[in-house]
Amino acid sequence: MRTTRVIFFLIITFWGVSWGQSFDNVPKFNASASQFSDKPAQYILGSGDILLVNVNLWGHVGRPGIYSIPSSYTLIDLISSAGGPLNTARMNDIRIVRKNQEVIKVDIELFLKTGDNTLLPQLQPGDTIIVAGSIQDIFSRFVGLMRDLAIIANVFVLASRVK
Q1: pTM here?
Q2: How far is residue 159's CA from residue 151's CA, in Å, rounded to a whole number?
Q3: Domain range for residue 106?
Q4: Residues 6+ apart with CB under 8 A from 58
C-alpha cells in the first residue's frame, strides 16, 4: 500500500512538472467586477491626453491579456505590443468579437501581402481578439497528452509487478 502511495505521489508530481503549469498566476474571477455589465463601453484618458480603449487579446501571441491601447492602434500594433504572434498562430484566421456579439474575421496574411488598410477593422472598447492556433499545435498537444498517459499507465503496470 505504501508503494502505491509513493508511486501515485510521483505520478502527480511528474504530471505537474511535465505540463509546467502553475495555478498561482491564474486570475481569480470576481463576479462583482465582471466586464459583462450593461454599462456602455468606456474610454480612458491616458498620459498626454491620449484616448485609450481596453481590449482582450487571447490565443497564440507572446503575452495574451487585457490591454489599454491608444484608440489609434491597429490590430497589427496590438499583436506587436503583445510580443507578436507565436509560430503556431494562424494569421489568416483572427477573430474580433465585439460587445454586440458581432464576430469579424481578419486575414492578416492577406493584409501583409497587399498592404490594404481596409482589411484591418478599427478596434473598439471591449473587443476580444482571438488568435487561433494551427491544427499542428492541437495535434502536438494531443500527442503529448497521450505520451503522459502512457507513462502513467506504464508506471502502474511496473508497480503491480513489484509486489
Answers
A1: 0.58
A2: 12
A3: 41-138
A4: 64, 128, 129, 130, 131
For the record, the C-alpha cell of 45 comes out as 484618458
Of 71, 59, 25, nearest in space to 128 by CA: 59
Q: What are 35-78's pLDDT values in tens digits? A: 444 555 566 666 666 778 899 999 999 999 999 998 888 999 99
Q: Which three cell numbers stand for residue 22?
A: 502553475
Report the CATH number at residue 70.
Answer: 3.10.560.10
Q: Where are the beta strands (DSSP E) in the chain?
A: 44-45, 51-59, 65-70, 89-97, 103-106, 128-133
pLDDT (tens digit per residue) in 77-121: 999 999 999 988 999 989 999 988 899 999 999 998 998 888 999
**Domain tally, the chain:** 1
Enter the C-alpha cell of residue 66: 487585457
